[in-house]
Amino acid sequence: SVPRWFHGKLPDGRRVAEQYLNQFNRGDGSFLVRESTTFVGDFSLSFWRKGKVQHCRIRSKQENGQTKYYLVDQVTFDSLYSLVNYYTSHSMKSNNFELTLSEAIPQPNAHLDKDWYHDNLTRSAAEDMLKRVRKDGAFLVRRRERDDRTGEESYAISFRAEKKIKHCKLRREGRLFSIGTAQFESLVELVEFYMKHPLYKGMKLKYAINENVLSKVGQTPEDDAIYGTGDVYHEPNAFVTKPACRALWDYEGINDQEMTFCRGAFITNVVKEDSGWWIGDYGDQKQKLFPANYCEEINYITDESPEEDQEREGKVLGDLQKGCIDVQGCAIEMPAPKGGQRHLLKILKHGQVLLEAAAESQEQLNEWLVKLQEAAATAPEEKEVLRKQQSMKQNIAQELSDLIVYCQPVPFDIENLGNGKHYEMSSFPETKAERYISRKYSKEFVKYHRRQISRVYPKGSRIDSSNYDPVMMWNCGVQLCAMNFQTPDRSMQLNHGRFLDNGRCGYVLMPESIRQDGFCPYDRETSGVEPLTLTLTVIGARHLVKSGRGIASPFVEVEIVGAPYDCHKFRTETKVDNGLNPLWFSTFEVDILNSPLAYIRFVVYDEDMFGEPNFIGHAIFPMGSLRTGYRSVPLKNSFSEDYEMSSLLAHIDVRSAKV
To answer: According to the UniProt record, what class of enzyme is this (predicted)?
Structure first.
């Protein structure tokens, strides 16, 4: 990229350079480099010294066929960049002064020739352009109309995120461009920063949009998917997805109306007919007939039986997996671009297309090609390994079985509760456990855990290593909740707070209320615990640091987590641009009916320019650990690691609830 100090050929060079330095200088040593208007082929260094602009010619000469640049004959450089870099650490010397270059003056209008900038584009026109590019990260920058009241010049970034179009105002304050509390020397610097750092909910600026791009990859405007007839934000249930099918056997159509496909083919946009023949799309075959009994439907499963749970656990990607392809013996082709897609991949077997897919770039396409070739080459070996593993599972040595002295894994039988042995243990995926912690089965599930141990683990479809909420599992007596420790989410933070008791040794006793006959986590009358009243005043905080640029605008969310009837949430107001020592003096009061199951969670957020909360720090404590008085609450990061200086100041009052 072009250095920020290089301004190229300025119109009326000397006068404009002086104008820029008078307007944007930051003290002695502020400078810029421009093409010389007097000596063609040379450059000029313009800099600020003692309230005045001065100019110095950068000469050039040829040495052994290479161009050298210099201010004085004795010190030459291979490039302008080397020359400027040298004089930022070494003084320029003359008979009248000695000066080191300091702050570069960026080009005020370097954005004018960028492909993402639009000098005359309305908000509605920007939305029309972005509706035609269905990719998160698509963006453009446009100049807004000058404010008649203040005379300020402003701009806006229009972008796509979460399948919606959003706009963000950029303010120009003197020589700086501001977005929220972050400031940049130029629009180019601002855009380059948010290409590397998230602008909105993890979204980075990726695809610059202009008319040239739209003429190549633009699609039909996606009006309904963004704005529709009502609010910008649609209800998820308003969308109906047509099912898809996977072929169980090969089929060859006997006329042009019928589809031809091979085993494992994916058929999309399926329309079910009553005649035993359905209609769908497969590759270039659009809306053609195929026999329904040759395929299985693979749309999302919403209400699964325990048997279906077990079947889905065998899928690597869980809900996201729609089938699989045996790539052994397949041919891979890269067809010509079509439909706006340039990087295509086609997998064929016996002359039939198994799968046709598109990649975003040639690099991504090459990566897929390498992975498919590797999978095809290693498939026979992996099949043999899998066969041996299955054989080993069927033949467990008695000597190995005799070593299992603490727990014996057995299938869970809800009809046989109370008759199991204490050393018999069952494991559940979270989907099955959620069925048993429901109001219908929770009392029986609690009864099971008074005698036996269970383990709950995340479902297989959590390919992003996210976690389930363990609180209701604990409330029903589950002893072992397996978590993805590498993911710093709310569930792992609750897990950290759960085991603060007992010196953080790794286990805590089951609350006495759960061990009582008749206990139900949904029934407040069965807790057998004296209720408490908690009065909490969030006074202030100190040293709250946000990620990225700018100053934090913090607010505090206080959450009571426990039995369903004890869950509450409160929040303070937002203190704008004060992360050093914000003050709130916000007071909350709540009755807690089953304190042994309850936790208090403090979370500090930074409210960004979009009004969205961004995590700063948290702290979680079991309710039984709270003591009355003024308390400094040390904050932790998302991994529950200590911050050095960040903390909250709160006053806590815990007393018996009033009758």
So the answer is: hydrolase
Domain tally, the chain: 6
With vertex at residue 180, the alpha carbon angle to CA 177 and CA 183, rounded to the nearest 5 degrees, is 35
The span from the first CA to the last CA of the chain, in angstroms, equals 72
- 442/58 Cα distance (integer angstroms): 82
Please give the structure tokens belonging to residue 580. Answer: 């050093």
CA gap 234, 222 in Å, rounded? 14
In a domain, 526, yes or no: no
Point out the domain boundary residue: 425, 460, 487.
Answer: 487
- Quick one: DSSP state of residue 581? S
Give the domain CATH number at 191: 3.30.505.10
485: amino acid identity, one letter: F
Q: Mind listing the pLDDT tens digit for each residue in 407-455?
A: 888 888 877 777 888 888 999 899 999 989 998 889 999 999 998 999 9
Return d(Cα 537, Cα 583) in angstroms, integer: 11
Between CA 399 and CA 390 the distance in angstroms is 19
Range of the domain at 378: 343-387
Identify whether residues 536 and 612 lie together within a single domain.
yes
152 pLDDT more than 70: no
**Alpha-carbon distance 297 to 315, whole Å?**
16
Q: Which positions ≥6 away from 546 have C-beta within 8 Å?
A: 552, 579, 606, 614, 616
Q: Which residues pair with 182 in a beta bridge?
A: 179
**What would the pLDDT profile of 97-117 be if each residue is shown by its tens digit?**
889 999 888 777 778 888 999
Report which of 310, 255, 304, 301 is spatially closest to residue 277, judged by C-alpha positions. Answer: 255
C-alpha span between 336 and 283 (Å, rounded): 14
Looking at residue 509, its amino acid is L
List of residues 6+ apart from 275 with CB closer than 8 A: none
- Which pLDDT score, from 0 to 100, does residue 201 have? 78
Helix (H) or strand (E) holding 375: helix 362-394
How sure is the predictor about 488, in pLDDT bands with cuts at 50, 70 and 90? very high
pLDDT at 274: 57
Rounded distance between C-alpha atoms, residue 39 and residue 609, angstroms: 48
